[in-house]
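Re: beginner question about structure tokens

> Can someone show what the tokenized structure looks like for a real chain? I only ever see the sequence side.

Sure, here's an example I had lying around. Input first:
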Amino acid sequence: MTKTIGLTGGIGSGKTTIANHFMAAGIPVYIADDQARKIMQSLEIIADIKKIFGGELFENNILNREKLAAIVFNNPEKLEQLNAIIHPAVKKHFGNWILEHKNAPFIIYEAAILFESDSYKNCDSIITVTAPLESRIQRVVKRDNTTRENVLKRMNTQWDDARRISKSDYVIENINSEIAKSEIKKIIKILRIQ
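And the corresponding structure tokens:
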């Protein structure tokens, strides 16, 4: 049976870069945030979001993600309501996706909030990606063209590295690309023989 390996890390840690290295090594990777973005464009999900958050977040039925983020990252209750819409849909989509990869010895399930959403409970092993706080902040400010304050607000909705690491089987420190790639190779070797 195909094993599910959770891959997580705080915002700006470089999870997606690490996920891409796994993909380059031929490992199937499911990137939950990308799939959630696609799922949020379905008519059923749009209707659910409109019910809770109102139609003013949409322009021509296209969700303004920045407006939604401003609401949910300042209101834990609203974040919980959004997650209650999105997470079951992503879980269902992932269930279908994993059937397509049932012959792989293991797959990677990459999710920013693997622990916060309880998705880790469905994983056989967990990999946490870490990076120094300042590097993470700078990466996100540059990537999302946002402010340091906004990045810190988003970080405050996630577990900290120490808490994630305490529940993880492997840790990849994502500072030096070559060292990170070498860690990935070691982890793949271990997972292939388990």
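Each token stands for a local structural state, so reading them left to right follows the chain. The first strand starts at residue 3 and ends at 9.
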